Please model this.
Amino acid sequence: MKKIVLFLSAALLSLGIEAQVKTPQPSPTSKIEQVIGLTDVSVEYSRPSMRGRTIFGNLVPYDKLWRTGANKNTQITFSDDVKVEGTELKKGTYAIFTKPGKENWEVIFYSDASNWGTPQKWDDAKVAAKATVKSVEIPMNVETFTIMFSDFTMDSAKLNFIWANTEAAVKVEVPSKKIALASIEKTMAGPSAGDHYQAAVFYKDIEDFAKAKEHIDKAISMREKPAFWYHRQQSLIYAKGGDKPGAIKAAKTSLELAEKAGNADYVKLNKDSLAEWGAK
Model:
């Protein structure tokens, strides 16, 4: 009986340790995913509320570094290089810190985005970009801290910070024209060597060796530098298609290139194939 009681006590204790009480968070997390032009931007932050408190100049002191939200510092991610208020900012993830003032906000994009709150030790070398923008008094109180995007154009938008009766906004410029022109030029130029290579492998796998040969030959002709894996596929396609002399020639080329590249796997594969096909 004593053993049973001890077992049940241990089981209940284990359940108590594993149980997690869930309650609503006072500053819930939020994630915004937004496309500006052709650039993906996401923001992750926690949203505190006023709850009768005076915010700027009190809860958030003027001219002091703020995590720009609650809990973990706010993070922003750009899929392309951008500009913030004219300053270049490389693609990647950044923490957003701010220094709200009575008339202006300083907005800082910090390369170390892993802090909880503000960094224990500030490092100016990690400031990737910063901008000073005007703060504006709005004719209402916004209860919960809000980050949003507005004023979209083809190649820009504003990143807005809004809380209480205050708003500050940073202009974000994205390289839409550059991306679009590059896409147009690539599409108009037709399939790349890699596209033909992938098509050749597919046609080989479905045993359409005539089309596989057409695409692998095109892929090899388009490459600026010869590639041993391209010629390896060419040898296999030629062999499957019944062109043993062509397969041997391609395998010898692949073998030579693989030896120069120091790729032992392809050296062995080519040597085995050449032996199988009776190459001299």
